[in-house]
Amino acid sequence: MKISTLLSGMMTVSVADFSPSEPGWKEDVKSDEYKTFYQDSAGGETRKVLLLGILNASPEACFSLVTDYDRFGDFMPFVQYTRLLDSERVNDDTVKNWVFFYLNPPMVANRFYTIELVDEKNVDGRLGVYRSRWSLDTSGRRKTPDDRDIKPKIRGGFKKPVETPLNDGFWLFEPLEGGRKTKVTYWVWTNPGGSIPPGIADKANAIALPKLWTAFVERLKERQRGKAR
């Protein structure tokens, strides 16, 4: 191993050192722990949003949390119910999962979707780097709130639930300071569907990012204290 590589892995870094790897992103919110950004989309679509942050935990611990799909409803904002529908091992480092999500966001009809997630470790040959990336399911595993095995598990809202027409994204966890800390990258492009205008959806997504970060950090601390599995 080169000395320069070893030293770079041990150097202290801060959120101020982070910036998007691609052009076109505009900074939105900045704190000591994270920054958020947005990028306009063509054709009047909703914006893509990005979060870059640092956590005092290993990449493996972070990855374990975001792939604990059946327990998302315990801590993720607005998530009422999730169900791991199927899993398929691709190789030693990669697993595909199909998960149904049912959400109850405030002031609007509930949302639902089924996504395919590709969960990877040692991403692109980089040891200790973890990623979970997703898109809407196209494999025929799609579920709806009316399915017999789903309906008893959820609470209906005041309106008919809406299926989300767009949901692409990923979590990326990279080791810092020898793996004692983690650089977190969260990217998502979603459209809630229904009659919500893109501008309103953009505002909701911007508000949701800090809530997501807070929920993630609190759940991670609970695990570190041994209060959550």
Strand content: 35-45%
Q: Which value, in Å, is the CA radius of gyration?
A: 18 Å
Instruction: Summarize the helix and strand pattern as letters.
Output: HEEEHEEEEEEEH
CATH class: Alpha Beta
Number of separate helices:
3
> Going by CATH, what is the homologous superfamily?
START domain
Distance between the termini: 36 Å
| CATH architecture descriptor | 2-Layer Sandwich
**Which structural class matches the secondary elements?**
alpha+beta
CATH topology: Alpha-D-Glucose-1,6-Bisphosphate, Chain A, domain 4
Shape: globular
**Number of DSSP strands?**
10
Low-pLDDT sequence parts: 1-9
| Overall average residue pLDDT | 91
Main sheet summary? 10 strands, mixed
Description:
The protein has 229 residues and is an alpha+beta fold. It has a single domain, classed as 2-Layer Sandwich (Alpha-D-Glucose-1,6-Bisphosphate, Chain A, domain 4). Helix content is 19%, strand content 37%. The protein contains three helices and ten strands, in the order H-E-E-E-H-E-E-E-E-E-E-E-H. Strands 1, 2, 3, 4, 5, 6, 7, 8, 9 and 10 form a ten-stranded mixed β-sheet that branches. A hairpin with an 8-residue loop joins strand 2 and strand 3 (48-55). The longest helix is centred in the last third of the chain and has 28 residues, at 198-225. Residues 1-9 have low confidence and may be disordered.
Structural features:
229 residues, alpha+beta, Alpha-D-Glucose-1,6-Bisphosphate, Chain A, domain 4, 10 strands, 37% strand, disordered N terminus
